[in-house]
Structures are given as structure tokens and as C-alpha cells.
């Protein structure tokens, strides 16, 4: 699933961290998909490239629309001969699949491809930046005879927890509150947001910026009693700061405004 981003729809270029020192290109944010991408300019086999992206908590890029393909070609792969993508027909010849399980509904094959031409079969997908972003099938060990770089992809938004809250926009339907972390998954700190969602129509007002916290599987939200006396129950948010200490925030369920903060030291 590719969620619609609540972030401003502009291109964001992120610095390359030590984890990706082998790469020459910057990590870039695509507002079309709300995902990050990075072209790693190291020639690898398809299997090695898949593992390298997985080790950085991402995956070999999948392309599910012309808009996404065009954006990748414009910003990352233009002029690059071969780039591995996360597509394969190794399970059943001729039946192509994305490694993420996304539907295989869009293709951009070069004329005559896929042709399973070389080296006892070609079961791995590559993008040809020198051919306007057209696709080609290659043998998974292709770097032994032709260089193939690879493209990693990450979801920008991680959904940490969701809870139902009373009807705060007075439309007669209970609403939801969502806790989100936004940023590259291999970075320990991520910007956290509180998003109040209308239960009637799914509309989201501007998210509440909570600041930077550690990515933690125990981050959670819960609904509490009305503390500030405005007739609405409050939201309890549990996160961890950069020192690893647990932070408990109480926020107004109607506006997301901070009421009180508690720090629970390790």
C-alpha cells in the first residue's frame, strides 16, 4: 500500500549516512508515492542487491505506475545503463511478481522484452536509464558480464498505532487518532506526528508535530479520561527520546494540544 503523504509535496534530498557510504547518489523523497529512493552505484548480483536494500530496512524498488517510473528516471536513473528493480519471474517463468507482493499491474518493457535470452534464463528485472527508463529482463548474476547498479526504496511514513476517540468534529461519527513516524527507516530518530482523522469522511486536518523520537515498537496511543474539563477525553502518547527514556504525553483529543509531559527514566 502506498499512502498519500501529509507532507508538503516538494522534493526533499536527504544526506547519505554512513550506512550507505558505498552509494554516490543522495537519498531522495518522492511526493507521488510518499517513499524514499536511493541509487546505489555499486555493481551487484540481483540477490546481493536485494539483501543490501533489506539490510537497510528497505527493499529493491518496485514501480507500480507511469508517474513513479517517470519520476525515478528523471531524478535517479537517467543515463545509467542497468539498474536492478524488485521484480522477478523466478517462481514461474513468464509470471512476473514484485518482491513486496504488490499487484503487477504496470509494466514498461523495452520492445522485444522480456525475452529470457541469456545464460540459462533471465529472471530478474532491470531498468535501463539509457533507454528512457524502459525495462529489461537480465540474468540475476549479470554483473559478471555487465555492470548493474541497484535502486533501494523505503516507505517514508510508518504507522505506529491507532485508536478510536469520541466525535471531536461533531459530525455524529467517532473519529480516529493515528501516531506516525516519518523518515528513513534505518535512521534511529524519526519525526513523529499525531494525526486526527474524521470517522465520517477520512479527512485529515494538519498533523500535530510531536518532534523527533526514537523508532520503537512499543510506541503507542490510548484514550484517557477528560482531564482539562473541555468535555473531550484526552490522548495518551508513549514514545522514547534519543536517550532511550520513555516519554508520556497527554494531549487534547480535539486539537492535539499538549497538556502535560511525563518522563520515565531507564
Describe it for me?
- The chain has 266 residues and is mainly β.
- The chain has two domains: 12-154, Mannose-Binding Protein A, Chain A (Roll); 158-264, Lipocalin (Beta Barrel).
- 8% of the residues lie in helices and 37% in strands.
- The strands form three sheets. Strands 1, 2, 3, 4, 5, 6, 7, 8 and 9 form a nine-stranded mixed sheet that branches.
In short:
With 266 residues, the protein is mainly β. 8% of the residues lie in helices and 37% in strands. A hairpin with a 5-residue loop joins strand 15 (234-240) and strand 16.
**Low-confidence spans: pLDDT under 50, at least 5 residues?**
1-23
SS-based class: mainly beta
Q: Name the CATH superfamily assignment of the largest domain.
A: Mannose-Binding Protein A, subunit A
What is the fold named in CATH at topology level of the largest domain? Mannose-Binding Protein A, Chain A
What is the total number of structural domains? 2
Write the CATH architecture name of the largest domain: Roll
Instruction: Kindly provide the radius of gyration, computed on alpha-carbon positions and rounded to a whole number of angstroms.
Output: 22 Å
Summarize the helix and strand pattern as letters: EEEHEHEEEEEEEEEEEEE
Query: Major sheet: size, sense and barrel closure?
Result: 9 strands, mixed
**Overall 3D shape:** elongated
Mean pLDDT rating: 87
Q: Strand content of the residues, in percent?
A: 35-45%
CATH class of the largest domain: Alpha Beta
Q: State the end-to-end CA separation.
A: 36 Å
Query: Which range best describes the helical content: under 10%, 10-25%, 25-40%, 40-55%, 55-70% or over 70%?
Result: under 10%
Total count of strands: 17
Number of helices: 2
Amino acid at each position: 500500500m502506498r499512502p498519500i503523504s501529509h507532507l508538503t509535496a516538494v522534493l526533499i534530498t536527504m544526506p547519505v549516512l554512513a550506512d550507505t557510504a558505498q552509494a554516490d547518489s543522495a537519498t531522495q523523497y518522492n511526493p507521488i508515492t510518499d517513499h524514499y529512493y536511493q541509487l546505489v552505484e555499486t555493481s551487484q548480483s540481483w540477490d546481493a542487491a536485494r539483501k543490501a536494500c533489506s539490510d537497510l530496512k528497505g527493499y529493491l524498488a518496485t514501480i507500480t505506475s507511469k508517474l513513479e517510473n517517470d519520476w525515478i528516471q528523471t531524478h535517479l536513473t537517467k543515463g545509467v545503463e542497468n539498474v536492478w528493480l524488485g521484480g522477478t519471474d523466478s517462481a514461474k517463468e513468464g509470471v512476473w511478481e514484485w518482491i513486496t507482493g504488490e499487484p503487477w499491474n504496470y509494466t514498461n518493457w523495452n520492445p522485444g522484452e522480456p525475452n529470457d535470452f541469456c545464460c540459462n534464463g533471465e529472471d530478474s528485472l532491470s531498468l535501463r536509464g539509457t533507454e528512457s527508463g524502459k525495462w529489461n529482463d537480465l540474468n540475476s548474476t549479470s554483473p559478471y558480464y555487465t555492470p548493474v547498479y541497484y535502486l533501494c526504496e523505503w516507505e517514508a511514513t510508518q504507522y505506529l498505532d491507532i485508536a478510536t476517540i469520541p466525535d471531536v468534529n461533531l459530525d455524529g461519527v467517532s473519529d480516529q487518532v493515528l501516531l506516525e513516524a516519518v523518515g528513513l527507516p534505518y535512521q534511529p530518530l524519526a519525526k513523529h506526528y499525531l494525526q486526527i482523522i474524521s470517522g465520517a469522511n477520512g479527512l485529515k486536518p494538519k498533523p500535530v508535530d510531536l518532534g523527533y523520537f526514537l523508532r520503537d515498537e512499543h510506541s503507542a496511543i490510548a484514550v484517557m479520561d477528560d482531564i482539562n474539563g473541555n468535555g473531550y477525553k484526552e490522548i495518551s502518547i508513549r514514545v522514547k527520546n534519543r536517550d532511550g527514556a520513555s516519554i508520556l504525553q497527554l494531549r487534547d483529543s480535539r486539537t492535539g494540544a499538549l497538556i502535560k509531559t511525563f518522563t520515565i527514566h531507564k
